[in-house]
Amino acid sequence: MSDRTAVATAPQTTEQIRGWLLDRVAHYLGRPSADLAGHLPLSGYGRESVYTFALCADIERVLRVPVHPTVIWNIDTVDGLAAYLGFRSARR
Hints:
Elements: H1 14-29, H2 49-63, H3 69-75, H4 78-90
Helix pairs in contact: 1-4
């Protein structure tokens, strides 16, 4: 995925959200998404605060789900974050 955060159709399912999140995290880390594992802690990839705030903005813009940065810090895996966002998206 390119640097575009907007998608023609926002991801809806937990699995679609997971793929989208992996692409966004890979973008911020400057790595291919295939190099990332959704079950590993994001903190292990050298996450920075500015990246966390940017990811929150991406989530709010694309998924229309407000997310405080502490959610990303506390959940700390793409798989966990995708499950949380999938649940939150379904409740809208």
